[in-house]
Amino acid sequence: MRQKNLWIYWLxxxxxxxxxxxxxxxxxxxxxxxxxxxxxxxxxxQHSTVTWGANSFFAYGVSLHPDYLLHKIGHVVLYGALxxxxxxxxxxxxxxxxxxxxxxxxxxxxxxxxxxxxxSFWDILLDVAAAWSAVKLFGRRKTRARRIDIIP
Length: 152
Known about the structure:
Elements: H1 6-24, H2 39-48, E1 50-52, E2 60-62, H3 66-90, H4 93-111, H5 121-138
Antiparallel strand pairs: 1-2
Helix pairs in contact: 1-3, 1-4, 3-4, 3-5, 4-5
């Protein structure tokens, strides 16, 4: 890849990091909190919510609530895009994943200091998995076609 095209990936990566820092600094980030769902949907959401552990770094929960789903989709999309951009910048998956891991760890650690938010080890794993998946799916490096000469 030509050096002059790397600025686009740098710009996108810094934009994603800025968006992540802004989103992780919002207390009680629950955009669907005040929406009144129909009783049958509320019942499905209530019965589909499972939580392991108390409010700790290793606790985890799964739910069909739109806040939960939007939160996890946000992790996958943003860290996937960040991983792809980092791969294009660094040229190596190892460094892209290390930087994504550090960013995810700092992001989750920061959330412990924001009222109404908690950091989670499982979100860090989700973030790194999203970065890895994006690099595997979209980050293929162009290889030169080998010229094969057949000598009769």
